[in-house]
Amino acid sequence: MTRSRARVGPRRSGGPTAPPLDVDALIDDPATGIIVCCGSGGVGKTTTSAALALRAAEHGRTVVVLTIDPARRLAQSMGIEALDNTPRPVVGVEETRGGRLDAMMLDMKRTFDEVVESQATPEKARQILENPFYVALSSSFAGTQEYMAMEKLGQIHADARRDGTYDLIVVDTPPSRSALDFLDAPERLSSFLDGRFIRLLLAPARGPARMMTAGLSLITNALTKILGAQVLRDMQTFVAAFDTLFGGFRQRAQKTFELLQDDHTAFLVVAAPEPDALREAAYFVERLSEDRMPLAGLVVNRASPAPTGVLSPDEAMVAAVRLRERQPDSVTAGLLRLHADRSRMVEREATLRDRFAAAHPEVPTAVVPALPGDVHDLTGLRRIGELLAGE
Ligand SMILES: Nc1ncnc2c1ncn2[C@@H]1O[C@H](COP(=O)(O)OP(=O)(O)OP(=O)(O)O)[C@@H](O)[C@H]1O
Ligand SMILES: [Mg+2]
Fold first, then answer.
1. Which of 43, 75, 78 is nearest to 63 (CA)?
2. Disulfide check for 60: which of 5, 46, 97, 334 has CB 3.0–4.6 Å away?
């Protein structure tokens, strides 16, 4: 499938300033079917996905946003406190242009259960779902949440295609330390599941005991001591039961990967205007291009708002020092200092962005200033949407 419009490409040469990200062009383009918001922990992925989804819906698209762990008040205002894995209509969306917005919060464990139920016979599914090792894996294995977010995306996409329910799916990603976790998760989960270690454990459950070498029984004995016989038995039963699903998991992960590589998908990398976050964003941008996944742009979120006034930070500092010499407790001197600090911060952030742009000049960028308070309702989301669109 080809898109009518190339989203990424150098628009100008010269200075390191990044081309602006045209968010409205992205959400108004009927060819945009999936938007994935990635980034490291706490940078504003959930906020950005919800804001984009709301704006797209109010621009007339039929949208579903798949959120992960939204802050409680935000979830409440979108009507998604219930973890039931079903998209629900968001109340209060302006629908005059014919669009609408559904939202859901990912229930990781439930998604995992649904996958097992859809892949195994009822008897086998029951065996797996009741197994304590499965319970632990499905709720706490590193990467499960990432993997399940992809699963759910795959499901919603298939349903949307079949029933015409949505023409745009906006996906939030889990609060991982690294944005890359999202892309690594399926591989990590499936290589864990068909890993050698697990195969070794599986051996006694499958083959005759004499097949076990002395070395292997040593390992198993050691594990029995460490983990306890029951745990080891649970693990073996789990793996044996899960075995039939291996192929299915890999295949599904592969399919979702292809979906992410599709021309109709757009990745947005969200970052805070800080060195670590931007470095992380740079890795992610490189990785997307290695994996041939379409990048729409970078969102630098919670940027320091530029102070008004014409004084440079140095001028403000000089003036503050002079004033203070004559008037030690001058309020104006305090304000001048504040102005200097703020302006320096804004300059520092601009330098960081320029550095990013110099290394990745082709990545369109939107800068969203920090609002004075948290974003926890539709009004706040609408405001973030406007800022994203450069209004
Ligand atoms: N531009 C902004 N101005 C003010 N507050 C913001 C802005 N963007 C995000 N926030 C606030 O910052 C907090 C973190 O945002 P959010 O939950 O979207 O981050 P996240 O990347 O999804 O975090 P996690 O990695 O934990 O999932 C929230 O309380 C949100 O309201
Ligand atoms: Mg989040």
1. 78
2. 97
Strand, helix or coil for residue 166: coil
Q: Are strands 62-67 and 265-271 parallel, antiparallel or unpaired?
A: unpaired
pLDDT score, position 274 = 94
Tokens of 182: 């999202």
Residue of the CA atom closest to atom 29 of ligand 1: 374
- Vertex 385 angle, CA 382 and 388, to 5°: 155
In sequence order, the 6+-apart residues with CB closer than 8 A to the CB of 316 are 336, 337, 339, 340, 343
| Burial environment of residue 280 by CB neighbours within 10 A (0 to 12, 13 to 18, 19 or more) | buried
pTM as predicted: 0.83
Series of mean pLDDT values for 10-residue runs along the chain (391 residues): 41 62 97 94 95 98 94 91 85 96 89 83 86 76 74 90 95 77 70 59 50 59 71 71 64 81 95 93 91 94 86 86 88 89 91 93 95 95 97 89
Ligand 1 near 368 CB (within 6 A): yes
Residue 20 is classified by DSSP as B
Query: What is the reported pLDDT for 202?
Result: 55
* E strand segments, the chain: 34-38, 62-67, 88-89, 100-105, 168-172, 265-271, 295-303, 365-369
Residue 136 half-sphere exposure, CB side, CA atoms within 13 Å?
Answer: 7
Which domains does the chain show, CATH number per domain? 23-388 (3.40.50.300)
Going from the Cα of 235 to the center of ligand 1, the distance in angstroms, rounded, reads 38
Q: What is the pLDDT of residue 211?
A: 47
> What is d(CA 17, CA 354) in angstroms, rounded to the nearest whole number?
6
Which residues sit with Cβ closer than 5 angstroms to ligand 2, an ion?
Answer: 45-46
C-beta of 47 in contact with ligand 1 (< 6 A): yes
Q: Is 347 helix (H, G, I), strand (E, B) or coil?
A: helix
Atom of ligand 1 at shortest range from CA of 40: 25
* Number of helical (H) and strand (E) elements in the chain, helices listed first: 16, 8
User: 274 C-alpha vs ligand 1 centroid, how far in Å?
Assistant: 15
